[in-house]
């Protein structure tokens, strides 16, 4: 038996629009792919250029500083050579160090590193020097003309440990008696500050090494010394001056003029991905905007040919949208088959929607009635009757002051219960609601129980579901304390959770008759409490629906000892109320 296949047909307009759309999508995709490749290459080249320029600027600044230091060293050599004794040396050098803020100290060393004379203009030498980091005999002896040390702390003067580098020169003739080496300690802070302030990209940085790859200065020096961070200096020292790219890292290197130091700049291409992504998204948006313009042109052409009935149908739809109840429409007379089907379907849909709107109106009226009944059901009629009966009894007994206080508490209780329709109120308001309830119950039960409230002040403006604490107090009174012979006690505490979460714990404890574990489980599973209030289970369900399953109530109870109910809610600031 031969199965006849159903022929799939497309209208000319649908086929044309699909073809144009497909062509636009393919063209846009190809353009975006080409743009992404070209733009990524351009970004990488720009990053390399930027890295090279930043390192070049630092190298220029370092060279200028080194040249300035050499000139000052030569001047100091001439000045020291003209000094007759240590006192004359200190007087002349003190003037220089005060004028030249970058010169921290000038020292004349003997052959074995003994200090012949030293001054920094402000502070004196330490009485006991454990180690002079500015003197390195092997370095001084190997130098031709002058030598420069790695950055280190100055340890021979009182008043701190500044970060310095030492420029030293060997004197051809003894100075100040038997002085052999003249050393100047320059403060390295200016160079370090300049390097720290030069960034390459969002996370790139620069540092200085010597010719052997040893780090001279690094903006994250402490991390290097502690071993938390490491630099691949073995790889870097093999690189020539210039810009290199390896494993998503751009290396830019420049050697100082004297060849002693190398300035190294590191930047990371993963930063380029963020910029590239932003630009590509922008390009996609512009491309689709362009496609939209083309589509509008195509639709404009089609509108003159086949879209006149469509406009009429759209006008009818807008009229239906603005005035659905009194809308009347008759369709199906269009010459184009597709439009005729759409028009007939719209007519049927309009009638169906009108019927549904009428049904929704009826259901909304019923829903309002149901919501009103649910709101009214939150008020315990039995509690209200007993409270009013107690007020009447107080008035008859002449206890008008107690009756007035009870009426005020009852008014505040219902005012907070309404809360202008808000589900969330502040903990301060919730405590006021609970305290008003306790005041009313304390009058009704005379001296049968006492209560206390301990709440953290910093949590008073946080939000919680209204009528959360009162049902727990109600449950404690009716099921715990009401059955006792001795005086009962209710404690309410509110504190932040100590388990590291950003939650609030509200506990309501009583010293009543207590419950078994089975009773504790049952009380969270039954629909309403026996007292007819909104119920402990209702409170638990509301919390879980509002905040999630991790929140709600937990009950811990022991027979003849008492019951503790703990409420866990998230910590929500008052300003965040609109989000819920």
Compact overview of the structure:
The chain has helices spanning 12-81, 86-99, 137-142, 189-197, 221-226, 233-237, 270-305, 308-322, 337-377, 381-396, 400-418, 427-444, 469-481, 517-523, 536-547, and strands at 103-109, 115-119, 147-148, 152-153, 163-175, 179-187, 205-210, 215-217, 242-246, 249-255, 261-268, 424-426, 449-455, 463-465, 488-496, 503-510, 552-558, 562-570.
Describe the structure.
By secondary structure, this protein is α+β, with helices and mostly antiparallel strands. Helix content is 49%, strand content 19%. The protein has 15 helices and 18 strands. The chain has helices at residues 12-81, 86-99, 137-142, 189-197, 221-226, 233-237, 270-305, 308-322, 337-377, 381-396, 400-418, 427-444, 469-481, 517-523, 536-547; strands spanning 103-109, 115-119, 147-148, 152-153, 163-175, 179-187, 205-210, 215-217, 242-246, 249-255, 261-268, 424-426, 449-455, 463-465, 488-496, 503-510, 552-558, 562-570. Strands 1, 2, 3, 4, 5 and 6 form a six-stranded antiparallel β-sheet that branches. Strands 8-7-11-10-9 form a five-stranded antiparallel β-sheet. The chain has a five-stranded mixed β-sheet with strand order 13-15-16-18-17. Helix 11 (400-418) runs antiparallel to helix 12. The chain starts with 11 loop residues before the first helix and ends in a 10-residue tail after the last strand. The model is unreliable at 368-376 and 528-533 (pLDDT under 50).
């Amino acid at each position: 038996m031969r199965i006849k296949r159903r022929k799939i047909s497309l209208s000319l307009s649908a086929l044309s629009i699909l073809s144009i759309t497909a062509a636009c999508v393919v063209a846009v995709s190809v353009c975006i792919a080409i743009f992404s490749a070209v733009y990524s290459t351009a970004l990488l080249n720009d990053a390399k250029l930027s890295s090279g320029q930043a390192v070049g600027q630092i190298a220029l600044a370092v060279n200028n500083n080194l040249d300035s230091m050499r000139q000052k060293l030569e001047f100091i050599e001439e000045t020291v050579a003209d000094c007759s004794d240590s006192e004359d040396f200190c007087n002349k050098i003190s003037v220089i160090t005060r004028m030249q803020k970058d010169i921290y100290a000038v020292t004349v060393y003997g052959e074995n590193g003994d200090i012949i004379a030293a001054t920094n203009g402000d502070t004196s030498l330490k009485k006991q020097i454990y180690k002079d980091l500015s003197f390195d005999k092997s370095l001084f002896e190997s130098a031709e003309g002058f030598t420069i040390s790695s950055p280190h702390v100055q340890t021979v003067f009182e008043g701190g440990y500044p970060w310095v580098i030492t420029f030293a020169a060997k004197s051809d003739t003894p100075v100040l008696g038997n002085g052999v080496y003249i050393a100047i300690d320059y403060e390295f802070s200016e160079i370090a500050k300049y390097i720290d302030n030069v960034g390459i990209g969002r996370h790139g940085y620069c540092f200085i090494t010597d010719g052997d790859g040893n780090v001279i200065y690094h903006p994250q020096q402490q991390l290097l010394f502690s071993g938390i961070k490491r630099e691949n200096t073995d790889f870097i020292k093999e690189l020539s001056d210039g810009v290199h790219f390896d494993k998503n890292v751009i290396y830019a290197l420049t050697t100082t003029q004297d060849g002693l130091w190398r300035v190294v700049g590191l930047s990371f291409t993963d930063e380029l991905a963020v910029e590239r992504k932003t630009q590509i998204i922008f390009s996609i948006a512009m491309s689709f905007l362009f496609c939209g313009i083309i589509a509008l042109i195509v639709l404009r052409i089609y509108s003159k040919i086949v879209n006149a009935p469509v406009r009429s149908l759209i006008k009818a739809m807008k009229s239906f949208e603005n005035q659905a109840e009194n809308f009347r429409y008759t369709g199906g007379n269009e010459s184009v088959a597709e439009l005729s089907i759409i028009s007939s379907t719209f007519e049927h849909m309009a009638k169906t929607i009108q019927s549904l709107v009428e049904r929704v109106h009826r259901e909304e009226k019923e829903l309002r009635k149901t919501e009103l009944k649910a709101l009214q059901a939150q008020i315990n009629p039995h509690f209200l009757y007993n409270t009013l009966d107690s007020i009447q009894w107080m008035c008859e007994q002449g206890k008008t002051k107690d009756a007035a206080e009870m009426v005020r508490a009852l008014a505040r209780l219902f005012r907070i219960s309404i809360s202008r329709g808000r589900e969330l109120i502040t903990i301060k308001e919730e405590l006021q609601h609970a305290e008003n309830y306790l005041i009313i119950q304390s009058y009704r039960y005379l001296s049968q129980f006492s209560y206390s409230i301990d709440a953290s002040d910093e949590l008073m403006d946080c939000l919680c579901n209204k009528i959360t604490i009162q049902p727990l107090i109600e449950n404690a009174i009716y099921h715990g304390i009401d059955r006792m012979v001795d005086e009962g006690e209710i404690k309410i505490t509110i504190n932040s959770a100590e388990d590291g979460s950003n939650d609030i714990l509200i506990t309501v404890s009583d010293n009543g008759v207590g419950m078994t574990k089975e009773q504790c489980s049952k009380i969270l599973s039954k629909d309403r409490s026996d007292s007819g209030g909104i119920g402990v289970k209702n409170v638990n369900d509301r919390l879980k629906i509002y905040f999630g399953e991790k929140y709600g109530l937990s009950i811990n109870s022991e027979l003849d000892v008492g019951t503790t109910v703990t409420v866990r809610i998230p910590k929500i600031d008052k300003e965040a109320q609109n989000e819920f």
